[in-house]
């Protein structure tokens, strides 16, 4: 069930209506749990079983961990949670990838190994809810939190439909306490929630799907090399598309939760105004970057075991983060590039971090532009379907493909240029403030006009009803 569908609008209206009826809090939570299962089952009902397995295993394991102080037993219990969750994830998401790489490895030794046909369907959102349930067991193991006393609350935490399939990845310490006592959206929360839903759908339907998707497809779907300008514009289009698509989902999810009386953490903070790559990861997919930091980078040793180990930990974290996004070596390279960027940035800060000229506004703007351009180089490996395509695109972007052909129409060149420039300017203007602060200072007539304009554009845009990009992860 897609946020950008009439089915969801009807579904959401029914859920919202039931949630505001004078039922007991337990009945309301039960309604939300049933609604969450129905929401997920709309894609493929049998995959609900996988959600149940993760839910029951982590519920049982966390309580057992909490009840014992025996270190070996605690470690074994945690290992059960990790193996079950990552085992399911590996089978459904990485099974075919592992088989194909095994075939290539055998072929390098002269063994003709035939890979069996892999017809397993990837369950939508499996990477998100797997990390979310694992966080629960890990928090209990590290004694950051106590296990929930209510199985209903925990089951709802795992499956809460606004963020179930594409995040934000919510920590148990953030969401579980909200289920303990009755919550009801105030008038202000309801207005804010509906406003965020509108903004999120505008980003997805109008910007991502309506304007940028086809431009990116034209460039990355071209036969042969493309020109220098088209390579950059096509990649800029994808950069804007993936931000508008994913931030649009997160914004809609936060808005839906808010209308029900719940708060979800922000997942984006104007990342295309980042000054440097550590700043980018403080602003992009915040719930994943903080998850990787707290449950992978820091346990590996973080930056506490010397410079060399710090760089190794950074690279490992980003390589795994890349693989989390997709079962392909192009995603691993995408993550590896970010790890390389972060390592070089860390080395440069140690050398020039205290130089005054680095803090000048003009230098900061230039550094932000350089960050944005280098981020776009990484997006090539995220968008390309193969290494030859990715390398060909990078070659064109660096000016080494003089035979590249122009594929974009003039109107598309204008559109992507205007949208990209507008997006970067908005991100830069908003980098040190918040949407709430801007809305508070803006007169209601202006806000009403903008809200109405977004609704109008959503309605008239002849979208294809495409799924959100991160559903595949």
UniProtKB/TrEMBL annotation:
Main location: membrane
Biological classification of the source: Bacteria, Pseudomonadati, Pseudomonadota, Gammaproteobacteria, Lysobacterales
Domain of life, per lineage: Bacteria
Membrane protein topology class: Multi-pass membrane protein
UniProt organism field: Marinicella litoralis
Name the UniProt record assigns to this protein: Probable alginate O-acetylase
Annotated TM spans: 7-25, 37-57, 77-94, 118-138, 190-208, 220-240, 246-264, 314-342, 362-385, 406-430, 450-471
Enzyme class: transferase
A matching Pfam family: MBOAT
Entries under InterPro entries matching the protein: Ac/AlaTfrase_AlgI/DltB, AlgI, MB_O-acyltransferase, MBOAT_fam
GO molecular function: acyltransferase activity
UniProt GO cellular component terms: plasma membrane
């Amino acid at each position: 069930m897609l946020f950008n569908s009439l089915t969801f609008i009807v579904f959401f209206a029914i859920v919202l209506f039931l949630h505001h009826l004078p039922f007991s809090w337990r009945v309301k939570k039960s309604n939300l749990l049933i609604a969450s299962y129905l929401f997920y089952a709309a894609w493929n009902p049998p995959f609900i079983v996988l959600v149940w397995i993760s839910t029951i295993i982590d519920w049982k394991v966390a309580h057992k961990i909490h009840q014992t102080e025996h270190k070996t037993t605690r470690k074994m219990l945690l290992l059960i949670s990790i193996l079950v969750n990552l085992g399911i994830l590996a089978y459904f998401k990485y099974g075919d990838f592992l088989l194909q790489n095994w075939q290539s490895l055998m072929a390098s030794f002269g063994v003709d190994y035939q890979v069996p046909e892999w017809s397993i369907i990837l369950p939508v959102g499996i990477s998100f809810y797997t990390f979310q349930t694992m966080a629960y067991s890990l928090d209990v193991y590290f004694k950051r939190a106590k296990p929930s006393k209510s199985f209903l609350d925990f089951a709802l935490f795992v499956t809460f439909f606004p963020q179930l399939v594409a995040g934000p990845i919510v920590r148990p310490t953030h969401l579980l306490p909200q289920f303990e006592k009755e919550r009801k959206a105030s008038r202000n929360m309801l207005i804010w929630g509906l406003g965020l839903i509108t903004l999120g759908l505008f980003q997805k339907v109008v910007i991502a799907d309506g304007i940028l998707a086809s431009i990116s497809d034209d460039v990355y779907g071209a036969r042969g090399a493309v020109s220098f300008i088209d390579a950059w514009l096509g990649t800029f289009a994808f950069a804007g598309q993936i931000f508008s698509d994913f931030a649009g989902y997160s914004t809609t999810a936060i808005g839906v939760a808010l209308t029900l009386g719940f708060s979800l953490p922000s997942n984006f903070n104007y990342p295309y105004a980042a000054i440097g790559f550590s700043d980018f990861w403080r602003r992009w997919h915040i719930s994943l970057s903080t998850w990787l930091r707290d449950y992978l980078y820091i346990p590996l040793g973080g930056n506490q075991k010397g410079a060399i180990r710090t760089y190794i930990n950074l690279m490992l974290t980003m390589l795994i983060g890349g693989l989390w996004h997709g079962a392909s070596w192009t995603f691993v390279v995408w993550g590896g590039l970010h790890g390389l960027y972060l390592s070089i940035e860390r080395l440069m800060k140690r050398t020039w971090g205290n130089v005054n000229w680095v803090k000048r506004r003009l230098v900061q703007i230039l550094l932000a532009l350089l960050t944005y351009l280098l981020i776009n180089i990484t997006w090539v490996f995220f968008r390309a379907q193969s290494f030859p395509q990715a390398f060909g695109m990078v070659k064109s972007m660096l000016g080494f493909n003089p035979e590249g052909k122009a594929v974009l129409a003039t109107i598309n060149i204008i559109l992507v240029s205007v949208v990209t420039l507008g997006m970067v300017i908005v991100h830069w203007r908003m980098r040190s403030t918040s949407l709430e602060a801007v809305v508070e200072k803006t007169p209601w007539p202006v806000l009403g006009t903008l809200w109405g304009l977004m609704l109008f554009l959503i309605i008239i845009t002849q979208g294809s009803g495409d799924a959100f990009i991160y559903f595949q992860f």
